[in-house]
């Protein structure tokens, strides 16, 4: 069988058990192993199961995913148009220059693109100030695949800034309630089995599929201490960005809402829409950089956010070419199969360069220096005398 048939067949086998009445999540499995995605995945792919003749019409499924790809681009373009940060020519690379992304969407039919399309719809709702609907769609995206949780720290920060501690509780309840409703049929039968299978944060990844850690020995890659170090690095990065970059990016907007003009040293030149997108995209990117493993289909987790992360900071005209080159090297790393020591190291170097640009490119301008007032008394005019 082809790669497409392997992935698609496994998904269809996983949801076929549910179609036949199996509600014990531990009993839902396919050729590639047990079902490890939340309940939203089951419902969406169950619809595809019936739409494609119980999963037999793979060509129709590819047409449906091609439509999903176009919808995803439309949602991403709308976000970029609202922020007005990326030059138009960059959209060519987003549409036409990634063989890997086209493969993930239309050839391999993974669930990652489904989750990301719903996530981008949620971000569009956030930009329209429809926070309750946005949180509902965000939670739906999480129910398709857990990688969406990488955006959660940024979203929590935005909710706290926008609504305060008490005001954000209803929004968080929306997210939690949807998860309960979607998982209820499985929670009533085997709650422990559902939670441990669909939200397994400690799952081990196979070394042969890793894109980002190929340069490490396999025993280090599988070591729990290494995983703990990555988690600490992730939390530290989130804390630093929240205190020194996200907080400053919201200072101008919060000050204007309260009738207060923040000092110039605390203002980052980002408009309201750009603030939301910057915080969400950088939150996700920090998680990608610290991931225990990146598989080839995970490229879609952040591919459409890379142009924004590279161009959201002030750029001289001559500095555009290095950013395009950086996009090209990242694409080359993801298209190297199997991954090599060189490709995985290059990917980390590129990620590090993006992080450095985000950190220094969004730093607030220094406070203007004013000379201390002179202590000498002002001369008295003759008229005053």
Layout: helices, strands, pairs:
Layout: H1 3-19, E1 29-30, E2 33-34, H2 39-51, H3 58-83, H4 90-96, H5 99-107, H6 112-127, H7 131-144, H8 152-167, H9 169-189, H10 191-198, H11 218-221, H12 224-249, H13 251-257, H14 272-289, H15 306-311, H16 320-334, H17 341-361
Antiparallel strand pairs: 1-2
Helix pairs in contact: 1-2, 2-7, 3-5, 3-6, 6-7, 7-9, 8-14, 9-10, 12-14, 16-17
Descriptive account of the structure:
The chain is an all-alpha fold and 385 residues long. It has one domain (5-248, 271-361). It has 17 helices and two strands. The chain has helices at residues 3-19, 39-51, 58-83, 90-96, 99-107, 112-127, 131-144, 152-167, 169-189, 191-198, 218-221, 224-249, 251-257, 272-289, 306-311, 320-334, 341-361, and strands spanning 29-30, 33-34. Strands 1-2 form a two-stranded antiparallel ribbon. Strand 1 (29-30) and strand 2 (33-34) form a beta hairpin. The model is unreliable at 251-269 (pLDDT under 50).
Give keywords.
385 residues; two-stranded antiparallel sheet; 2 strands; 63% helix; globular
Short account of what is shown:
The chain has 385 residues and is mostly helical. The protein is built from 17 helices and two strands.
Q: Compute the number of structural domains.
A: 1
Order of helices and strands: HEEHHHHHHHHHHHHHHHH
Distance between the termini: 103 Å
Query: How much of the sequence is in beta strands?
Result: under 5%
Q: What class would the helix/strand composition place it in?
A: mainly alpha
Query: In which range does the helix fraction lie?
Result: 55-70%
Q: Mind describing the biggest β-sheet?
A: 2 strands, antiparallel
Mean pLDDT: 87
- Helix tally? 17
Total number of strands: 2
Point out poorly predicted stretches: 251-269
Rounded to an integer, what's the Rg over CA atoms? 24 Å
In spatial order, strands of the major sheet run 1-2
Shape: globular
GO molecular function: dol-P-Man:Man(5)GlcNAc(2)-PP-Dol alpha-1,3-mannosyltransferase activity
Subcellular location: Endoplasmic reticulum membrane
Region (Disordered): 366-385
Transmembrane segments: 35-51, 63-80, 109-127, 133-160, 172-189, 225-243
